[in-house]
Structure formats: C-alpha cells, structure tokens
UniProtKB/TrEMBL annotation:
Compartments, record wording: Nucleus
MF (Gene Ontology): zinc ion binding
Protein name: Protein FAR1-RELATED SEQUENCE
Pfam families cross-referenced by the UniProt entry: FAR1 (PF03101), MULE (PF10551)
FAR1 domain segment(s): 37-120
Function: Putative transcription activator involved in regulating light control of development.
Domain MULE transposase: 241-321
UniProt key word ATP-binding: no
Taxonomic placement: Eukaryota, Viridiplantae, Streptophyta, Embryophyta, Tracheophyta
Organism encoding this protein: Panicum virgatum
Length: 509
C-alpha cells in the first residue's frame, strides 16, 4: 500500500450537488436518518465509511473507514497472514448529536478532507461494504436462479442484462456468491424436519402420496423413500420394465440417489426415488434387486483387466461373444471357441461369468421384453438430467425433494406435448415413429442374391415355407427383437410388403 502524503488532501468537487453535502443547518429525526444521508453523500464522493461506537447514546460518529492506525501485538515473525491494514489515519468524518432534552439530530462536526484519493466511480463504490445496494427484486431474481441451478456465469450474465450493463449493476460476483452461500446455510438448518413437513404437505394434497423412512440406532433418519401419486399411476401403466440404480450423489450429505426408472414409448418414467445413507446390502433389502450385464462386468472389472493384459485380444473377442450371437446355442459355441483360442479354460472369473450367463447374456433373455434396456442407462440418463438442472452437492435434502417434484412436473409437460404432437399417438410417440419409419424405408432395399466369392454355404433349417400364405399370418424372427424391444424390424416389414404385393400383382399374370 502506498504511504499517503500528509500534506495532500482530497475532497469532493465543486460540481457536487449542494443538496447532498452535509452542513450544520440540517436536522434529522434519528441517528439512522443522519447516517443514511451521510451515506448518500459518501457514495457520490467515493470512500468507505463506518460507525464509530465510542460515543454514547446521545452522539454518533460516522467516519471514513481508513481513519485511525492499526496497532498489532503480533511480531512480524509470528504473523500467520500477510494481509495489511487499510487504515491510514484519515480524519474525514461527521459527528451527529441529539438536541438537549431529546428531539432531532444535528451535525456538530464535519470534516471533508481525506488523506487518500477518492473513488467516485460506480464500479469502485459498489465494492465498498457501506454502499451495498440490495434491490429486493434483484435479490429475488438471484434466489430464483440459484434455486433453478443456473450456473454462476449465467447468473451474472442475466443480472448485467437486467441492470442495463455492468456499470449499472450494484452487485459484484462476490456478493452473488455470498448470497448463495447464505442461502445454503439457511436451508441446512432443520433440514430433516423441513423434509418431513414437505412430505406431510404432499400427503395432505393427495392421500396417494407415499413415503417411508428408516431410522438408525440414534433415532436419526438413515434412508428415505417416496413416490408421488402420478408416479404410482405411471407404474401401473408402464411397469413392464424397471431399472434401479444408485450412481449419483445429489445433496450436501453425499447420500446416493436411488431411482426406479422405466420407459413409456422411449421416454423415461421415474416410478419412485430414495436417498440412502449407504449402499450396504441391508439398505437395499426393501428395494429393487436386479442386475444386468453392466453390473456383472463391473463386478469383475479388475479380474477381467488382468486377464486381458495376459491375453491380448481377449477383451474384443469377449465383447463380440456377448453381443453378437442370436441364440443360446451360438453363444455356447462361440464361448467354447474363445476358451480354446486363448487357452483360458481354468480362468475363475470366466467360470463365474459363465455360471451367471442367464442374468447378463442377451441370448438368454431375448424373449423377455426390456424396452431396449439391458442395463441401467435409463437411470443414468435421469441422473444426468437431475445433476445438470435440479440440484448439486450443496442442495439440502428437503430442497432436493422439492426440486425432484419440479422435474416430474417438467417430464409430464414434455409427455403431454409429445402426445399432442404425435402421429399414431395410440401406438407410437414421434420418437418411436421416426425409428419405425426409418426401418420401414430400409425394408424396401433388401435384395437376396448368391455370394460369388463363397464356394460353399451353411444353412440353419428352421421351417418349411409354404407358397400359399394365409390371410391371418404370424411371422417370428429368431433374433426376437420385436419381443425384446417392441420395435418392428426391416426384415419383417419387407416380408409384409411381399405378401401384400403378391396379392396385388399376381392376378395380373
């Protein structure tokens, strides 16, 4: 800090409005009114102020914050921080006194001269604590954006736009950050009682709302599960496939978020959610238990990585064996060939994977409708939506529950819009219709011709096809993709076209 020149003084300019300059003729109803007037003058001139508490109840001193000298009892060698004091002995101040016998307040001493330069620009004065201006409407806007998880840079961008430019914005980035921190501290107080109060309110609004919580040995909530009435209705309609995942921590306590997720015509549907203290087996006793390919391979990840290091190329072959075969018999043959090729018959991890193949190899559950879901990608997709729009790791639990309700309302609105804009809405949403239309178009491009490069051919004899196809016919494909995903295949569309075309054109010949 530059040492001030004791012979140099600074004061307000002659062009300053006399109405804002303190004088001895002025009187005020209270000390607070006198301080607010002086604060207005200070803001126009550009220096920080403070209230001097040395006076009694009959007088107040309002001083420049740089008044006095900083005396420290700490030796320079023992100082833990290198922050220097801003006090440099400035004498600028006003003394306010109450008239004898009580009544109005007057200025009894006024010192305009400073021993430091003044900063009358708005960009400087707004950084001084005494000149902070908290516009209620602006602060409400800040709170709303914070509650909506708007990133800090975007918050500042909106505030500058609303204020008409950064020079007109009376808030600094630090002010906005402090506002958010204060809100977080406030919301953390009585978090669990606020959560239960919110649940009771939901129950009062709709008796079908369900919530349950589990207490630990200290009578503190350990886990909590809840489901809104609309979610229960969705479960009744779309529970053909349910996934469960606990991959995202959404709150200040780092409690895992567990969700039961399904789908409605390729749209995510959340049936219920829980916040858990931990991921122990006993915690999941009352929750959904189902594992697919991701769970199994993730469980043996370390062993598989070690095996892949010892046998280069095994990882690619294993992936192909898992994903490519159409039927169990083909999987069995491919698995045996893989074991022979890499000589890994004695691998314990591969033995474990093989023993559990009914749970994770697609060839063994193709006839089970999974809505294109063979792992927990639906839950992970919802997790991403929650993370980027509704909460973060500083969110209180009761705030998270409220934010999740907003997410459900948003999803319902999107579903209603999709239903309104859908073609064939009784069968397909637009998302599914686009997939179907693409496959329908692809079905017209199929041509079957011999491969001249092949000297021999292999065939799987499945059935004898009659030339005459009945009016009411049922076609099945061995890949069972219709049963597995609910979507028509290009091959089957092509077959349907072939039947229709025969009926249309054969009579002409």
């Amino acid at each position: 800090m530059i040492t001030p020149d004791v012979n140099q003084t600074y004061t307000h300019g002659e062009d300053l409005d006399p109405e804002v300059v303190p004088n001895f003729e002025m009187s005020f109803e209270s000390f607070e009114d006198a301080f607010l007037f002086y604060k207005k003058y200070v803001g126009r001139v550009g220096f920080p102020i403070k209230k001097n508490r040395k006076r009694g109840t009959t007088g107040k001193d309002f001083c420049c914050s740089l008044e006095g000298k900083h005396n420290t009892k700490v030796q320079d060698g023992d100082r833990k921080t290198s922050n220097t004091s801003k006090r440099d002995g400035c004498k600028a101040m006003v003394c306010a006194r109450e008239a004898r016998g009580g009544g109005r307040v007057f200025f009894t001493r006024i010192v305009f001269e400073h021993n430091h330069k003044l900063n009358p620009t708005p960009s400087m004065t707004k950084r001084m604590r005494a000149h902070k201006v908290e516009d209620p409407s602006m602060m409400n806007l800040v709170d709303t954006m914070h509650a909506s998880q708007v990133p800090h840079p975007n918050v500042m961008r909106v505030l500058r736009s609303v204020a008409g430019g950064v020079e007109n914005l009376h808030l600094t980035e630090r002010d906005v950050q402090n506002r958010r921190a204060a809100h977080v501290r406030e919301e953390r107080m009585d978090d669990i009682p606020k959560l239960l109060a919110f649940f009771r309110e939901c129950k009062a609004n709709n008796p079908q709302f369900f919530y349950e919580f589990q207490l630990d040995d200290k009578n503190v909530i350990k886990n909590v599960f809840w489901s809104h009435a609309s979610q229960q209705s969705d479960y009744a309609d779309y529970s053909s496939v349910v996934t469960f995942d606990t991959t995202y921590r959404t709150n200040q306590y780092s409690m895992p978020l567990a969700m039961f997720v399904g789908f409605n015509k390729l749209q995510n549907v959340v049936f219920g959610q829980a916040l858990l203290r931990d991921e122990r087996a006993d915690t999941f006793e009352w929750l959904f238990k189902q594992f697919r390919a991701w769970h199994v391979t993730n469980k043996f990840r370390n062993e598989l990585n070690q095996l892949n290091t010892q046998h280069p190329g095994l990882s690619e072959t294993l992936t192909s064996v898992i994903n490519h075969p159409l039927r169990p018999i083909e999987f069995e043959q491919a698995w045996a060939a893989m074991l022979d090729k890499y000589e890994v018959h004695e691998s314990k991890v591969l033995m474990k994977l093989y023993d559990e193949r009914n749970m994770w190899v697609g060839a063994y559950f193709k006839e089970i409708f999974c809505g294109t879901m063979t792992s927990t990608q639906r839950s992970e997709s919802v997790n991403s939506t929650v993370k980027h729009g509704y909460c973060d790791n500083s969110t209180a639990i009761h705030e998270f529950a409220k934010s999740f309700l907003k997410l459900l309302a948003h999803n319902k609105e999107k579903e209603a819009e999709e239903e309104f804009n859908s073609q064939l809405s009784r069968v397909y949403t637009r998302a599914v219709y686009k997939v179907f239309a693409s496959r329908l178009k692809s079905s017209t491009t199929f041509r079957v011709r011999p491969d001249p490069d092949k000297a021999g051919h292999e065939f799987w004899v499945k059935a004898v096809v009659n030339e005459e196809i009945p009016e009411e016919s049922k076609f099945n494909c061995e890949c069972m993709r219709i049963e597995h995903t609910g979507m028509f295949l290009a091959e089957k569309c092509s077959l349907c076209f072939l039947v229709r075309c025969r009926k249309m054109f054969y009579p002409l010949y």
